[in-house]
Amino acid sequence: MKFRKMLLVASALAGMAVPAIAQEKFDIGYDIYFSGNSWSVQLAKEFEAEAEKHKDTVEVAYTESELKADKQVSNIEDMITKGVDAIILTPISPTAVIPVLKKAEAKGIKVVLLASSIKSDDYDALVTVDDVDFGKAGAEWLAEKLGGKGKIIALNGISGISASDDRWTGAKEIFDAHPDIEVISVVDAGWDYAKAKVAVSNLLAANPEIDGVWSQGGSMTLGAIDAFEAAQRPLVPMTGEDNNGYLKRWAALEADGFTSVAPSKPTWLGSEALLVAIDLLEGKTVEKNKIYDVPMITADNLGEFKRDDLSDSFWANTRLSDEQVRATFQD
């Protein structure tokens, strides 16, 4: 047991305030699950910015898993071996990490899940938004825009990742409740612009009628827009996300009648995960499932979130300063 922990426990038992003396920091392991898109990059930057604010309290050891479940398991094994006090991770697989997280908990290591869940309760806290509600929110808007009927396509992230699966679960529930809405194709586009553009281009070539696009990612929606325009097809209602490049494009197309809505999974969840970990290590009571409501950007508040002075790669719901955003995204 580290000196800092012993001091906190002893002081609590004695009913005394912790004396203002040098204390050993909490060691926290943070696994960057992916750096392949701007959302995951900003999520990690939110964590790093919060860690800098608490540099007198925490020492962070970083690992990267590159969206590989086996590598994430290995990284967590290494953190356990090093004897960290807490582990913060975004699970790549909802099942693969369960055995290693059981090991961590058996050694008294606090486990905080960030933005993605697992199929067990072997963790101390989950910090996220409700991805099922995320999917429902966009689907409800699209169903209303279409008057409850029409042919649509759906663009998912990556099957097997809980955020992607849960969003589609929520959306499908809404579409299933509208028998006159036909989902003609569901594709995994990896939250990626290029993959989405290719997928939608192929679907447009094969389907003379597509009345709407449900997309669970802003970059994918941008790809869909460009595919429609390249095919010289009229734009249809599409759901997006709070990516600044998408918000700019949406605003620019409003004069042409384009309509959209943008549910958000805030990148500030990265900041919040560290605050929760610190609370756990300091012995405070923490809600096990800290699930936030899904923020929504609509035509009515689009102007409040769109930032023409910041990078297209920036995500609107953030705790980062403008200077930190500019340092992160140079485009």
UniProtKB/TrEMBL annotation:
Pfam family membership, one: Peripla_BP_4
| A GO term for molecular function | carbohydrate binding
In terms of InterPro entries, this protein maps to: Peripla_BP_I, SBP_2_dom
All copies of the Periplasmic binding protein domain together span 28-284
Any keyword Signal? yes
Where would you find this protein in the cell?
Answer: Cell envelope
Q: Which family does it belong to?
A: Belongs to the bacterial solute-binding protein 2 family.
State the name under which the record lists this protein. Periplasmic binding protein domain-containing protein
Give the originating organism.
Answer: Pseudohoeflea suaedae
